[in-house]
């Protein structure tokens, strides 16, 4: 029997996107610098991956200024939470099916 990978979400195949989503699943919102430091990403790398997740509707960003410094905070959307939970369940099901 071949394992069913139908519910594996390609949006989360990247280690960076998986990390971003994991961080946002357990926090109400997290700023750009914190995510960048936690995942050891460059500014450009985080900007690219977060933009992709935002375009998919999985996360949203809130840009503001604190004093004179720009601050971007990210949070997960209801759609993003549902998609990520579905992805994790699909991974768990796949791993369970590998019991030989």
TrEMBL record:
<dbReference type="InterPro" id="IPR036390">
    <property type="entry name" value="WH_DNA-bd_sf"/>
</dbReference>
<feature type="domain" description="Winged helix DNA-binding">
    <location>
        <begin position="17"/>
        <end position="94"/>
    </location>
</feature>
<dbReference type="Pfam" id="PF13601">
    <property type="entry name" value="HTH_34"/>
</dbReference>
<dbReference type="InterPro" id="IPR027395">
    <property type="entry name" value="WH_DNA-bd_dom"/>
</dbReference>
<dbReference type="InterPro" id="IPR036388">
    <property type="entry name" value="WH-like_DNA-bd_sf"/>
</dbReference>
<protein>
    <submittedName>
        <fullName>Transcriptional regulator</fullName>
    </submittedName>
</protein>
């Amino acid at each position: 029997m071949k394992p069913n990978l139908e519910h594996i979400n390609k949006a989360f195949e990247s280690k960076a996107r998986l990390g971003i989503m994991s961080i946002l699943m357990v926090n109400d919102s997290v700023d750009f610098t914190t995510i960048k430091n936690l995942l050891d990403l460059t500014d450009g790398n985080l900007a690219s991956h977060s933009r992709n997740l935002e375009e998919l509707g999985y996360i949203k960003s809130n840009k503001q200024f604190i004093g004179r410094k720009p601050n971007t905070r990210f949070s997960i959307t209801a759609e993003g939470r549902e998609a990520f939970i579905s992805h994790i369940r699909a991974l768990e099901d796949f791993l369970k099916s590998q019991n030989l």
